[in-house]
Predict the structure.
Amino acid sequence: MRPISRRHALQLAGLGVLSAAVGGTGIVLSGGSRLDPAVGAQLSEPEALRSEGGVLRLRLEAAEGSLTVAGRRARAYGYNGSLPGPTLRLRPGDRLQVQLVNRLDAPTNLHVHGLYVSPEGKGDNVFVTVQPGETFDYDYRLPDDHPPGVYWYHPHHHGMVADQVFGGLYGAILVEDPQDLPVARERVLVVSDITLDGAGRLQQPSGMDQMMGREGDLVLVNGQVRPSLTARPGERERWRIVNACAARYVRLRLDGQRMDLLGIDSGRYPEPRSVEEVVLATGNRADVLVTTTEGSSALEVLGVDRGGMGAMGGMMGGSFSGDVGTVATLEVTGGSVTAAAPIPPRPEPRDLRGVEPAGRRRLVFAMGMGGGIGPGGMSFTIDGREFDPDRVDQEVVVGAVEEWTIGNTSPMGHPMHLHVWPMQIVAEDGRPVDDVRWQDVVNVPAGGEVTVRISFDRFGGRTVYHCHILDHEDRGMMGVVEAR
Ligand code: C2O
Ligand code: CU
Ligand code: CU
């Protein structure tokens, strides 16, 4: 029998022939009604909170409740009653104080993804547990030389991360540039996905969804389905894009408009790069300039092959973040404006390719048949082990530059994420890269390997590295690094 891929199954579901088509394949989709989204409203942006006098202090309440999702009332998770949560706008040198209040019925905590801050104590400490009804006061101090860019926050309590992020707990963090760039406007676009039933309730993922990494039926931009944006011809906008999906990779296109990429994650190019599309693995962010031309353009999310499952995939369905199509529309009309001032050049980024690493390590991401029957029994390991918060897997010296080669023996890509210290990609499958690329989430393709260099500067303490397909992280594809 010919196996049905996830993409195929979704297409079939759209045609209403799913129940007939899945018979005997072992794929069980819950079927039934799905939320009917309201489409096309003006883009709304999460509330922006700015630091004042070097401090941003806020209360962040994580709760399940009745929220607006896709223009409907839904029962999902949110921070301060909204999905996404508020956008936090900070400057290098700021102090960020967050009182996290847990109104969920499960433990949670808070992670500031990509921020270059201490992982200890009340800092970006993922070993903290905040029980239901409890609060925790985080206190993060950004160094004066913190890189400007797009970051984000989300829960990081091991075992609950995929459920809580997929349910709606995420928000953007922006660290401002020393000087504002000459743009007509800035927009924050948080891309996420979710699956809601006809009554607007969160759908539970199947064991299969969890093995592949769950992808939602609805792809949202700031919690909306296909919102519309308007601009005048010739305007330059700055789009801060976060891929907050629990597992989905997105390939973004904006045909008919000019896109220049300032950088991915905290990485910055000396000059903006003209691009046709931007591919973001789960957890990655993009900082993009859009220069408009009259007409109507679609922001599209196109498919990314996350690495098929080989023979195993035949039985279990493919691993493909499918074509979603239009996720927002940009309407450019009216009188044209005069061209904005040129973007000032940035300082050359640091390049560790000329540095002799103090240490070299090899890490291997793998999947195997663990205990139990069916997809639920699949194990997700790094170096043959599942996550243990009480074990230190990598000990590094504060200030050392190391080279890590991350291998992937599994038939599926794993986006590797390291907390605190960004990674410079220096080789892919042994081939040196010829530009300077700093990211904090690096996709390691199925059967491939990526070599990165890391400068373990400034901060001591214990933190983690893991697969950012959050179901894999929750199932153990995470390790502990300690810098001292
Ligand atoms: Cu975005 Cu360890 O997480
Ligand atoms: Cu992170
Ligand atoms: Cu993974």
